Amino acid sequence: MTYTINSMVQELARIQIKQIDDSILKQLNEFISRGLLVVEQKQPVLIQDSRSSEIRVSTFISLKLKDQEYIEKLEIENKEMKKDLDDIKHLFTNKED
Questions:
Q1: How far is the CA of 68 from the CAs of 36, 73, 77, 90, in angstroms?
Q2: What are the domain boundaries of the chain?
Q3: Distance between CA 62 and CA 43 in Å, rounded?
Q4: How far is 36 from 34, CA to CA, in rounded Å?
Q5: Which of 35, 38, 41, 46 has a CA that sits 20 to 30 A from residue 70's CA?
Q6: What is the C-alpha R_g of the chain?
Q7: How many other C-beta atoms are found inside a 10 Å radius of the C-beta of residue 38?
Q8: What are the residue ranges of helices labelled H in 1-97?
Q9: Average pLDDT over residues 20-44
Q10: Euclidean distance between CA atoms 36 and 7, whole angstroms
Q11: CA dihedral angle for residue 18, residue 19, residue 21, residue 23, rounded to 10 degrees
Q12: CA distances (Å), 66 to each of 25, 37, 44, 48, in order?
């Protein structure tokens, strides 16, 4: 079988993409099995195109962090504490002796 440069590059790109996909899927599966990531899925919906009689299946799937709301709350508190700390630092650095 003879490969052109273009076909070799395409094959290498396909292999690289497959390796990346496999790595991402492996990591996602680990996060899901550890309970850190939750898969939210709604029931599939059948959609029929009246012009072409083509039928499609539409499904909504999303990934959410298990404690997303808690993490967002901590991020807000962290931002507020940093502001308070900056204000305190500012008071001490501008204090006249």
A1: 10, 9, 14, 33
A2: 67-97
A3: 13
A4: 6
A5: 41
A6: 26
A7: 14
A8: 5-33, 68-93
A9: 92
A10: 41
A11: 160
A12: 18, 5, 23, 35
- Which H helix or E strand runs over 64? strand 61-65
* 95 confidence band (pLDDT: 50, 70, 90): low
| Residue type at 72 in one-letter notation | E
Q: Which residue has the tokens 């298990």?
A: 66
| Three-class DSSP category at 63 | strand
Distance, CA of 75 to CA of 70 (rounded, Å): 9
Angle at 60 between CA 52 and CA 30, to 5 degrees: 135
pTM higher than 0.70, yes or no? no
Residue carrying structure tokens 């808690």:
70
